[in-house]
């Protein structure tokens, strides 16, 4: 046992000891060798030691080796679980691909696929490489890449990523990134780098560990000498040898060495599971103390899919202006440019080609289009090109006041058109800002967009510090100023112009669909474009650092308590003494406990979960299955199942919902909300028309009124001025005037929302609250939200968050009502899913 399984300790421990940097293997080697050597000495030359010291410790040396190897085996199993994220990512890599050649299709290893080649993706297959969809729209499951549980639509010409699963029919794509450059390979590399990198807190443990082993050797020698000097002669050698061996065995630098890496491995793996990729694990420590969260606007707080609202023509034609701008923007990655390209494609504007294109981050794009010099950009781009934008500033300001962006199009030194482009704010952006402020983190917006546009967006989000019209250098300077003042700053952006800011911030966060330059400059990548993911990253950081401190506390505390016990320090007081076997067992458990504690980070439950993507469902015709769409629209599963069975489409609930299916599900959702019994069969499946059961116009008017009231509360606060009640006005009478039933009145009193008794005169406070309850009922505010809004102890932030969440729900309900109008419930021609 000593020189068989235990030989590995000699192989690693002796060279380390010889180099003057003993490690854990050195301690185990010395401890087990001391037990084995002492026993061998007693066995063959017992006359060298006193007779009462003739005790054999062969079983101790064997148990030391056995227990430590067993502990390392359990530790390896546990550590293997911490790296399961990499194993799952590796399992997502396809091994072969169906390559399309002039001679036909052939299945080859993915290592043989080159950029530019066409490959066919069959139903259910994983994409082996990154590419561009060519011949048909693709429905892809990207849950392992972005955390999105539902399939996403990728249309012709759009980028698709390796590792995604084809949920639809067969399609072809042209490879753009292969091998180690593909999205999946880069993700695996990022996670591996995060596992291997060290946090700043690890340096403390490393410094202590370097001095730890030499100190243990001195303590072991000191323990042996002390026992030989002070103990009675008949037990001195026995006690000295036992204490020295126990000190060598029980000392555990492994626990200190494992304290940080295991937590980092688990955290980075959990981050990748929920769509957070840590390029550098140092961000896990730095995020914990962030006090400023700065966001770019376009593509970070907005959907990043701007649309052309209108085109103001000053000279020439719409075709000439839009065609020239789109030709230039095809050489750019800016989302505003994509809006111009889409608008040109929708109008079938062709025949424009650009050359000598120069794109300057934050300053627009310029080049030659069909022989003419064209510049596209904001006022700064025009000024740089020595073109005066001042005569058109009124149009720019009018657009900015509506939260829209104005982009000039200039041809041959003359402004010919102004493109008004708009982008929808992400549904979770407002909640993210409120949640950050509640955690003591100041939200801020830095954008290159027009200052008035940025101010309009900031006002909608409740952000007080927003700056527009900034170029990349000014963003970088603003962040440097905050850091110089002692603040710790996280910056989130997605464009090339964000790269300097991402690099200068304490922690840079890039949106996964951002540019390569932005991604390379960031410490964290968000695979899903949701600003709320920042809250999840901060929560994961705090949980990880708390876990690391627990591990380090255990590792240090274990050694402080157990080494004196092993040395026999407590023997004089309590007659406590550890045997070498017990020391080996305790040492193995210490490392195992550190790893098991790190595993408590799994599964990490993100505190911020984005609002249901009802807006995306209703406006983008995203490819959701019927059952999933019904769940998002809050249609109870039992209701959907009953309706499906009665109307003969129960076997189609897992099919993708058509546009008409979504509209009908909206009608069903409204019927459930209005507590109207759902007829069987549904009117639109019957052979004869029937009268619609819902007054959709009335529902929309009621929701719009509720939005108006809630918005007024958020902007102006609550109007608490009410007339003082007369002495004979009872609380019950006032409740009746406020349309509050007796049952609800009792409930409000029981919950403490109202303080008085029904038959007693109402107090001024109860009168005010009843007036606000009436307003809340008009605003369709739930009882829980009402209590939050009216609670005198609630902070303004809590009230604002409740109001914003309620506005989101009302907006979703209004969208549902409007979409329901698209399908007449009396129609009787069902859509085949």
Low-confidence runs: 685-691, 720-725, 826-833
Helix content: 40-55%
Quantity of strands, as a count: 22
Count helical runs. 32
Rg over CA atoms, rounded to whole Å, is: 35 Å
What spatial form do the alpha-carbon principal axes imply? globular
Averaged pLDDT? 76
Main β-sheet description? 7 strands, mixed
Distance between the termini: 69 Å
Trace the largest sheet across and list its strands.
10-22-21-20-11-18-19
* Beta-strand residue fraction: 5-15%
- Helix/strand-derived category reads alpha+beta
Oligomer: single chain
Give a quick set of tags describing it:
833 residues, 51% helix, globular, single chain, disordered C terminus, alpha+beta
Written overview of the protein:
The protein is of the alpha+beta class. Helices cover 51% and strands 13% of the residues. The strands form four sheets. The protein has a seven-stranded mixed β-sheet with strand order 10-22-21-20-11-18-19, with helices on both faces. Helix 6 (183-196) packs antiparallel against helix 9 (253-273) and helix 15 (429-438) packs antiparallel against helix 32. The longest helix has 35 residues, at 533-567. The chain is globular. Residues 685-691, 720-725 and 826-833 have low confidence and may be disordered.
């Amino acid at each position: 046992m000593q020189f068989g399984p235990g030989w590995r300790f000699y192989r690693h421990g002796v060279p380390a000891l010889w180099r003057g940097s003993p490690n854990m293997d050195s301690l185990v080697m010395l401890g087990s060798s001391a037990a084995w050597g002492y026993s061998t000495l007693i066995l063959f030359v017992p006359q060298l030691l006193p007779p009462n010291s003739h005790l054999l410790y062969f079983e101790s040396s064997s148990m030391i080796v056995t227990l430590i190897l067993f502990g390392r085996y359990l530790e390896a199993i546990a550590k293997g679980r911490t790296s399961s994220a990499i194993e799952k990512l590796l399992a997502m890599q396809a091994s072969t691909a169906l390559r399309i050649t002039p001679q036909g299709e052939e299945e080859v290893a993915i290592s043989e696929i080159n950029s530019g080649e066409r490959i066919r993706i069959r139903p259910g297959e994983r994409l082996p490489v990154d590419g561009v969809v060519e011949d048909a729209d693709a429905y892809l499951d990207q849950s392992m890449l972005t955390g999105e549980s539902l399939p996403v639509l990728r249309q012709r010409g759009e980028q698709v990523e390796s590792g995604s699963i084809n949920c639809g029919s067969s399609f072809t794509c042209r490879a753009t990134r292969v091998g180690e450059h593909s999205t999946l390979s880069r993700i695996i590399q990022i996670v591996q780098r995060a596992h291997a990198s060290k946090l700043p807190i690890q340096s403390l443990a490393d410094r202590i560990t370097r001095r730890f082993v030499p100190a243990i050797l001195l303590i072991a020698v000191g323990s042996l000498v002390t026992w030989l000097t002070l103990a009675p002669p008949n037990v001195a050698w026995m006690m000295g040898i036992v204490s020295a061996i126990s000190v060598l065995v029980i000392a555990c630098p492994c626990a200190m060495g494992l304290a940080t890496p295991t937590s980092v491995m688990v955290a980075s793996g959990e981050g990748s599971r929920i769509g957070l990729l840590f390029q550098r694990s140092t961000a896990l420590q730095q995020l914990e103390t962030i006090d400023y969260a700065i966001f770019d606007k376009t593509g970070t707080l907005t959907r990043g899919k701007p649309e052309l609202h209108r085109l103001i023509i000053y000279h020439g034609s719409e075709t000439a202006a839009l065609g020239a701008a789109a030709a230039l923007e095809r050489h750019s990655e800016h989302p505003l440019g994509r809006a111009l390209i889409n608008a040109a494609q929708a109008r079938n504007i062709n025949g424009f080609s650009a050359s000598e294109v120069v794109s300057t981050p934050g300053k627009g794009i310029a080049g030659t289009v069909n022989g003419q010099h064209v510049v596209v950009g904001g006022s700064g781009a025009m000024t740089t090109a020595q073109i005066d934008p001042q005569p058109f500033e009124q149009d720019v300001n009018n657009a900015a006041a509506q939260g829209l962006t104005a982009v000039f199009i200039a041809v041959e030194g003359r402004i010919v058109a102004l493109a008004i482009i708009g982008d929808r704010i992400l549904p979770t952006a407002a909640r993210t800002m409120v949640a950050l402020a509640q955690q003591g983190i100041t939200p801020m917006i830095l954008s290159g967009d027009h200052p008035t546009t940025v101010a309009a967006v900031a006002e909608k989000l409740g952000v007080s510090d927003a700056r527009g019209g900034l170029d990349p250098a000014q963003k970088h300077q603003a962040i440097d100023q905050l850091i110089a003042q002692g603040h710790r700053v996280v910056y989130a952006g997605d464009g090339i112009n964000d790269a300097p800011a991402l690099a200068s911030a304490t922690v840079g966060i890039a949106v996964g669909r951002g540019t390569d330059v932005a991604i390379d400059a960031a410490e964290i990548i968000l695979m899903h474009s949701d600003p709320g993911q920042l809250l999840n990253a901060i929560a994961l950081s705090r949980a990880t650092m708390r876990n690391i401190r627990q591990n380090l506390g255990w590792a240090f505390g274990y050694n402080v308590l157990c080494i004196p016990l092993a040395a026999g320090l407590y023997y004089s007081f309590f007659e406590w003494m550890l045997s070498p076997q017990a020391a080996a067992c305790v040492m193995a458990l210490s490392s195992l406990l550190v790893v098991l504690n790190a595993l408590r980070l799994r599964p990490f439950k993100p505190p911020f979960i984005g609002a249901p993507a009802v807006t995306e469902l209703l406006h983008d015709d995203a490819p959701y299955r019927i059952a999933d769409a019904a769940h998002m629209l809050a249609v109870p599963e039992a209701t959907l199942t009953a309706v499906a069975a009665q109307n003969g489409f129960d076997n189609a609930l897992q099919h993708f919902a058509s546009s008409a299916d979504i509209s009908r599900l909206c009608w069903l959702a409204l019927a459930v909300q209005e507590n109207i019994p759902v007829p069987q069969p549904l009117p639109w499946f019957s052979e004869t028309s029937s009268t619609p059961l819902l007054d959709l116009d009335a529902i929309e008017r009621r929701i719009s009124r509720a939005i108006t009231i809630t918005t007024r509360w958020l902007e102006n606060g609550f109007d608490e001025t009410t007339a003082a009640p007369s002495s004979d006005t009872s609380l019950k009478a006032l409740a009746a005037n406020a349309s509050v039933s007796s049952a609800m009145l009792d409930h409000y009193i029981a919950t403490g929302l109202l303080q008085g008794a029904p038959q007693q005169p109402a107090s001024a406070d109860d009168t005010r609250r009843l007036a606000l309850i009436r307003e809340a009922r008009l605003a369709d505010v739930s009882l829980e939200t009402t209590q939050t809004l009216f609670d005198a102890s609630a902070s303004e932030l809590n009230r604002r968050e409740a109001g914003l969440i309620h506005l989101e729900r009302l907006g979703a309900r209004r969208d549902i009502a409007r979409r329901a109008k698209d399908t007449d419930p009396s129609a009787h021609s069902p859509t085949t899913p």
